[in-house]
Amino acid sequence: MSAKRTAHIISHTHWDREWYLPYEKHHVRLVKLVDTLLDKLDNDPNYRSFYLDGQTIILEDYLQVRPDQKGKLEKYIQDGRIIIGPWYILQDAFLTSGEANVRNMQIGHQDASKYGSVAKIGYFPDTFGLVGQTPQLMQQSGITNAFFGRGVKPTGFNNTVSDSDYESSFSELMWEGPDGSKVLGILFANWYSNGNEVPVDLEEAKAYWERKLSDAEKYASTSELLFMNGCDHQPIQLDLPEAIETARELHPDTVFIHSNFNDYLQSVQRSLKHELSTVKGELRSQRTDGWSTLVNTASARVYLKQMNQLGQAMLEKVAEPLAAFAHTLGVGEKYPHHLFTYAWKTLMQNHPHDSICGCSVDEVHREMVTRFEKSRHVAEAIVEEKSRALADAVDTSSFEGAGKDALPVVVFNTSGWERTGVVSIELDALSLYFRDGYKLEEASRLAKEADLTGRVLVDEQGTELSCTVEDLGLQFGYDLPDDKFRQPYMSRKVKLTFEAEKVPALGWKTYAWVKKESTVSQQASLITADRVMENAALKIAIADDGSFSLLDKKSGRTYRDLGVYENTGDIGNEYMYKQPDGETPRTTKGIAAQIRVLQDTAYQAAIEIIHEWVIPASADDKLDEEQRDLIYFPHRKAQRSTRMVPMTIRTVVSLSRGGKGVEIEATFNNQAKDHRLRMLFPTDLDTSVHQVDSMFEIPQRSNKPAAEWENPSNTQHQQAFVDVSEAGAGLVVANLGLNEYEVMQDGRNTIAVTLLRAVGELGDWGLFPTPEAQCLGEHTVRMEIIPYSDQAIQSAAYAEAYQFQIPWTLSQTGVHAGSIAPTYAPFEWEGGDLAFSSLKMNEGTGDLLLRWYNMRSHAAELKLHSNTPYYYFYKSTILEEHGERMDTDASGRLTLPVGRCEIVTIGVSR
């Protein structure tokens, strides 16, 4: 070389908290590693620095066992020898929500700042692909780079400009998000262990560095070469300073330094002479053979994804908005920042790629179930407290005329759009407290004898609504007051089910169950013929085999053969699906089903479909042999067993009077192994592309994979929904925690959603049996099918799909005066192309932060008005930094231009 090259050696360890060992076994090794690191820093000033894997949870995990070492940790972090942040954990990108990623960055910054400076490094060493909005999220976090190991095809060779077969000419590239945000991307082209275990011995080092330097120069655009000294759970290389001295002796033409990411980045930016390739949008390894993209982790242990979807929704879409409402309106106790941080941290401990992806040993995922429950229980406790406090502050005096027996109910809509839907609540129709002198027998008798007849449901204007009442009988209950001992009681409970109409966005509406003779004439049934349901917008007809057709009355389009089940073998592993060679998929098409009307009310109809199916019990014996021989999964020859087991599937297809889509709930008891179950939705729409919900974005993807793709399966990641459309018609399939789909190349553009994937091994670098990944037992899945005409956004199909993710909240209260109107929304907003994402409070400022993102790739406009006692608006970032005050019109309404695909956060300050 004419000019000197520099070898930047960065010490690190990639620390999967749990994976092929349970968490605590990795935890023990972590404590030993950090102890060793601190001792090394104490005793060797030549060991310059160590990057702690970009996740501050390592500090928590270590100090949980070694609290006595906190002072020493703080010293070396402040000295810049241990580098921490910016994340709380290293999360999977496609299986965690946008808000979860924002909280991850916020909490990582908060925790790191307590020790010193935060590393502004966009660190994604082993993330299984990266979402398109990552550059914007980095820029809004003050980060101008992204280091990653997956998602881009390996680069061109020998610093030549690549042809169309490559996505980047070099390991350095410009990565551009859909909004135009750019970051410097650094691909670990030779992986994040390419500088691992550097030899001290002269002969070993000679061979090592000849190979390593050549490999790095093959991809690098400058003479600044990156060598990552560490790997998964890699112990610290204690003799690295000596190994660097050996390297300097061998290669005087090369500057070897024990470096860090900041120094490396500055050197690269100074040395850039080539124009770097620009890679746009999602990094999903689409320009590969398709066998090692790890996309099928989206369907490994589906039950985990379902728990995660619910846990995220309860925190970001229900608990945080309700707590913000209550605090803003001066109702109840203060915003519980400490509880939210605890709940988010507990949830995010399940978000690393080896955790949420379902690709670890069974012990790991058992512990995850407990964490999901713990986080959700905290969220539920906040929701119960805040919704009750708000309901008790609502003015329900309009129901006084209905008598002392009126039972008001407040329905909360914490989504960002006005909402209509079927809701249910269990009411205490009569409560007899033991504190009032009632004996158990007397309380039970009086509750049983309570007269619940002659009641109707009314809104605040006294208008009667159709309502179904289910008498739940005598039940024990209790209160937990803040100022006295627990208060047990016996109650007579009823369950009310009705359709709540036009509940304001981010607001509520009040109803009451009152003593009154019904005067409402029965509305027409939604069951209009045998096996046919119909409302003003949709018509569903069930066929003999349980599939159904769906007519969108506005577009005139009928979608046929929806809801067929498909079953195939799976001889792959938790990472990747592999169908046995030559297998023909089994389907329920043409198999007679048992069909009956399950529900027929004025507001909702439902039809039950039972499939008594049989499928192979497992793979044949050859799979076990191939697993033990570590046969790479694409090369396996196992087939399915000839032994059959029952697969009974109960499907409920339901339609509400005001519904924009048809809801599907399927329940089955899986007793088979080594297989995949999907539900099929043929669209028969003429298009080569489709849209899909991802993090703060609805990217467009090709139906057909790239030419390099060899895998027969082209499954992909989704969050809330996938959408296939042509001019004038489209079909959205929304889901709850079903993160894998495929648009099939079958001539019908069929959307296939994976409901279950059952496998028996972890995969990757050895044989790790995972019998619990066979997912034996009961499963329930839910979807909504939403047809539309014109455009999906303008038709509110996407809004409907997003609302499907969010549970309704209802709270019982009494008849009383109150400070809050019975129908109310603290905020009102307009912006047809925008999707509402979150409402929360900042702990430091007490400001409210509201977030939207532009679903379209062109400019939009946000109009926002506050009905709360807040004084001004400002534009912020995902880190919730206070910006300059923005002007409003005479009515106090803010009008703000929003860029294409922009994530916009608005602060509301006192």
TrEMBL record:
SMART domains: Alpha-mann_mid. Residues 297-372 form the Glycoside hydrolase family 38 central domain. Keywords: Glycosidase, Hydrolase, Metal-binding. Pfam families: Alpha-mann_mid, Glyco_hydro38C2, Glyco_hydro_38, Glyco_hydro_38C, Glyco_hydro_38N. The keyword Hydrolase applies. Belongs to the glycosyl hydrolase 38 family. This is Alpha-mannosidase. It comes from Paenibacillus violae.
